[in-house]
Specification:
2 copies of one chain form a homodimer. Chain A is α+β, with helices and mostly antiparallel strands. The first copy, chain A, has 2 domains: 118 residues, Winged helix-like DNA-binding domain superfamily/Winged helix DNA-binding domain (Arc Repressor Mutant, subunit A, Orthogonal Bundle); 158 residues, Chorismate lyase-like (Chorismate lyase). Helices cover 35% and strands 28% of the residues of chain A. Chain A has a 6-stranded antiparallel sheet with strand order 4-5-6-9-8-7, covered by helices on one side. In chain A, β8 and β9 form a beta hairpin. In chain A, α3 crosses α5 and α4 crosses α5. The N terminus and C terminus of chain A are likely disordered. β7 of chain A pairs antiparallel with β10 of chain B, so a sheet runs across the interface. The first copy, chain A, binds a DNA duplex (30 and 30 nucleotides) through α1 and α5.
Chain lengths: 294, 294
DNA sequence: CACATCAACTGGTATATACCAGATTTACCT
DNA sequence: AGGTAAATCTGGTATATACCAGTTGATGTG
């Protein structure tokens, strides 16, 4: 019965081969191994009875991971494709795919839609305490950074923004969304909201620079304190497109409220990071049960 | 040619049905729809030509997501299984699986190996600035928290710990690993390292409580400042087991160095969180270009 | 009633196949 | 040389099938 199945498979597979015309050698190789393989399958069921009890796709992922670790594969190098992995390790394409997907969720690998998968670069370090502008510290650290302005709008405060800014609902708000690239690759999306009456004509500025700088230079406003929330969550379709990652991936969301010396909140920012691309640090000072509660 | 393929499929499928014997109704249903389906397949290829151009598994995930949002499915409720989804939506098991996996990586759903998938509970909020013990603040917020001591060891400092503690390599170090549960479910793993000579007989204490409390009460040591790093990464197999999540998932790693009033580091902690289970907040004060220069 | 057993679940892994659409490369033609 | 069209890559989606190993609940036995 199984053999009959095999024969039928051959006929359909040949039809395919006539069109694609390239996998014939691989196919023949597998056919030669075929008879022995059939016995193997009936015996111990591959790998599970073996001492190496780890799933095949994990083993393959491990091999690639070590190739990255040893430097055989370097940052932004292209990885073997799903199909070539399946030939190389004599597994199905799906198994090769799972290995690559595992590396992707780990963050070691990123994928560019229909072009291939590549080795992820080193993480960017973002010191959230050092709120003196991510842009400026990054540039000081020689991180190449390109800022793309995605959208700028003048809108009004909904209930959430109103509460954050301690202003009435409907207050004029400036909003802009920017996409940050490093090494030619998107790293995070940032949307910032500013109280409009405090920063007239803010959007006239070139936003492809540190906004903290603009606020300091043109509006004499400096960040003094901030409240930050960091969480991991699933990516939204529109975000996925901007970050050029596939849906059903996780990102890190970082929200911050920035206050001036008087404690008045003037900027609300929302950042959506490719999780594998960053690392967040903070320096904290324990509030000795005085004002700060929670 | 395609039709021939179909006929062949039927014959093999019947063979299978004789053994499993349970999915016959589903199979018949599908067979009745068969002729129309075949035409559909030849025309626009399901869903892609449709206005609803989103992949089938995304649509299914969306439906379940809205069921969670509306409260039809509540925290820790069990979700439909992969097989029942595939019947319900008339898709293959793999497609149903992908829908569930998507929800899992989003964090809306967690899976307990071979028992099923369940709706994730609300996130725990962890204020990292408020270093006055996660345990104590959680208990103040009525979060039920169970601490399981996984391992306690007395070891010596490797180069990394030595550097962190500003002590020579080989210094005696106390280490313990604890698993934190909430609502009967594992939330994060914490491993803490203490300089041994400063905290004699520390491991004699019951570690199923706030260690900050122990340090304050028995050793007159209070946390004053801390350095924290947060990053997203892939989970290690041993961690996955403790957290009862599957491999190839992402977790949030939180490392912290805790210092006393004199600025001397006395505790190094490493936490591995189920990413969907937590949300980290911090209150930061901008260092006005004085000491802090990262 | 306690305990062992077994049938029926569950997700996990794996294969084979198919077609799609976008990206890239090659080949050819002007 | 330049440009276009076809071939051939890439991953994305989907189906059907199979067997595995835990979990759970029902069934029966001591």
């Amino acid at each position: 019965m199984q053999l009959t199945g095999k024969v039928r498979d051959l006929s359909t597979q040949n039809k395919t081969l006539e069109r694609t015309g390239i996998h014939q050698i691989t196919f023949l190789e597998r056919a030669i191994r075929g008879s022995a393989d059939l016995l193997d399958k009936h015996r111990g069921k591959d790998s599970r009875s073996d001492p190496s009890s780890r799933p095949r796709f994990v083993q393959i992922a491990d091999e690639i991971r070590s190739q990255i670790a040893t430097g055989a594969l370097k940052e932004h190098d292209i990885l073997p494709s799903e199909r070539s992995l399946s030939e190389q390790y004599d597994v199905s394409r799906m198994t090769g795919r799972r290995a690559l997907e595992a590396l992707e969720t780990e963050g070691l690998v990123y994928s560019a839609d229909r072009r291939g998968r590549f080795v992820s670069p080193q993480r960017l370090k973002y010191n959230v305490s050092n709120m003196v502008s991510f842009v400026r510290t990054a540039q000081a650290d020689d991180v190449d950074l390109r800022i793309e302005v995605v959208e700028t709008t003048e809108t009004v405060a909904d209930s959430r923004l109103a509460a954050l800014f301690e202003r009435p609902v409907g207050s004029a708000i400036i909003a802009y969304t920017r996409l940050f690239h490093s090494g030619g690759h998107p790293i995070f999306i940032e949307t910032e909201y500013l109280v409009a009456d405090r920063f007239p004509d803010f959007l006239q500025n070139d936003l492809r620079q540190s906004t903290t700088q603009i606020l300091e230079n043109s509006f004499a406003t400096t960040a003094s304190t901030g409240d930050i929330v960091i969480r991991m969550r699933g990516v939204q379709p529109d975000e996925a497109q901007l970050l050029s990652i596939s849906t059903s991936h996780t990102v890190i969301e970082l929200e911050q409220v920035i206050r001036d010396e008087a404690g008045v909140p003037f900027c609300f920012g929302n950042q959506v990071w490719r999780g594998e691309m960053a690392e967040f640090s903070a320096h904290t000072i324990v509030a000795r049960r005085s004002a700060d509660k929670d």
